[in-house]
Design brief:
Helices cover 37% and strands 18% of the residues. It has 11 helices and 12 strands. It has a 7-stranded mixed sheet with strand order 2-8-7-6-5-3-4, with helices on both faces. It has a 5-stranded mixed sheet with strand order 1-11-12-10-9, with helices on one face. α3 packs parallel to α8 and α4 packs parallel to α5. The chain binds 4'-deoxy-4'-aminopyridoxal-5'-phosphate.
């Protein structure tokens, strides 16, 4: 065993209790089902001898559809078994053992695990009070830098012009982790052609309601994608996930309907949680980050006792809070009722 593996803590995923009586607002899944066309596509993939044969190594059918929908060249798309797979591929490709990864804090804690596995050092820089990177950026020249945009847990998002500036400052490859960008009014996709060190990553786990199928992708310069292909497993995405992801990305109308509902619910959560005494950071993602003058860990525990799961998060040098996913209207109604009871008891 390499010593860095023995010494590392390992990433702790959110609790995955998938019982019908549990309201699950802890890992930012979409509370609504995927497009009906996804079910048709998966059923079709189960016919004939499609499971017997290997899938397309580069996902050409998906790349053609996604390229058309997103207005990018199919050659600029790299497919992944979830966007975590993409983040792993990028780390393996860019970061040598003993190398340096930079990111902001608080942010996605997987970046630390990726650095640990690689035997690299993660340099974290605190966000400023208005959730932007400090200027000048003090960790220039890292082998790889990660920026979750919108960020987790805050739900805040830098605007494209701020991303451009940050990409210049990091002075090395910058991964714009856009797991939640489908819920934001802007994103960095258009920047990819113009900023050579920018790589955008996306997931199907949130907006596309396919966390169980595991699919994500990166958009980067085609010459970069050709290099990254060498690092990935030959068949990192299976026949069923490719079929599901292709059908989902082609059904933009369906998902736009879900987005409107979820953004309305996010607004309601922000207002009502504030009324309950929480400090809620305005969110551009499908969750809200809230803190309270009362200790939040007991609130998380009291919610759990009522079968409502939210994410309790604590960050060194920053403190703790609750990250609550946007649920269905009914789920959020139940959540708010439970919080009212907990906070007044
Ligand atoms: N990036 C961020 C910022 C996330 O919060 C998540 C979800 N945990 C991911 C990437 C990974 O998503 P996926 O399910 O596609 O691996």
């Amino acid at each position: 065993m390499r010593p860095n593996i023995r010494d590392m803590a390992g990433y702790t995923p959110g609790e995955q209790i998938n019982a019908a009586h549990v309201i699950k607002l802890n890992t930012n899944e979409n509370p609504y089902p995927p497009s009906p066309k996804v079910f048709d596509a998966v059923r079709a993939a189960l016919t004939g001898d499609k499971l017997r044969k290997y899938p397309q190594p580069l996902g050409d059918t998906f790349r053609a559809s996604a390229g058309k929908v997103l207005g990018v060249s199919p050659d600029s798309i790299l497919i992944g078994n979830g966007s975590d797979d993409i983040l792993t591929i990028l780390t393996r490709a860019f970061v040598p053992e003993g190398g340096v990864i930079s990111s902001l804090t608080p942010s996605y804690s997987l970046y630390k695990s990726l650095a640990d596995i690689q035997g690299a050092k993660l340099v974290t820089v605190p966000f400023t009070a208005d959730w932007t990177p400090p200027d000048p950026w003090p960790a220039k020249g890292a082998h790889l830098s990660f920026l979750a945009n919108p960020n987790s847990p805050s739900g805040t998002a830098l605007r494209p012009e701020q991303v451009v500036k940050f990409a210049e400052q990091v002075n090395g490859p910058l991964v714009l982790d856009e797991a939640y960008a489908d819920f934001c009014e802007w994103n960095g996709l258009e920047l990819v052609g113009n900023i050579p060190n920018l790589i955008v990553t996306r997931t199907f786990s949130k907006y596309y309601a396919l966390a169980g199928i595991r699919f994500g992708f990166a958009v980067a310069a085609p010459e970069l994608v050709r290099q990254l292909v060498k690092v990935k497993d030959s068949y990192n995405c299976d026949v069923l996930s490719l079929a599901a992801a292709t059908a989902a990305i082609e059904d933009q109308d369906y998902y736009a309907g879900l987005r409107s509902k979820m953004i309305a619910t996010r607004g309601r959560m922000t207002v009502e949680l504030t009324e309950l005494g929480f400090t809620v950071t305005p969110s551009r993602a499908n969750f809200v980050w809230c803190r309270h003058e009362k200790p939040v860990k007991p609130i998380y525990e009291a919610l759990k006792a009522k079968n409502i799961l939210v994410r309790y998060m604590k960050y060194e040098g920053y403190g703790d809070g609750l990250r609550i996913s946007v649920g269905t209207t009914a789920e959020v109604e139940t959540l708010l009722g439970a919080l009212r009871a907990i906070l007044t008891s």
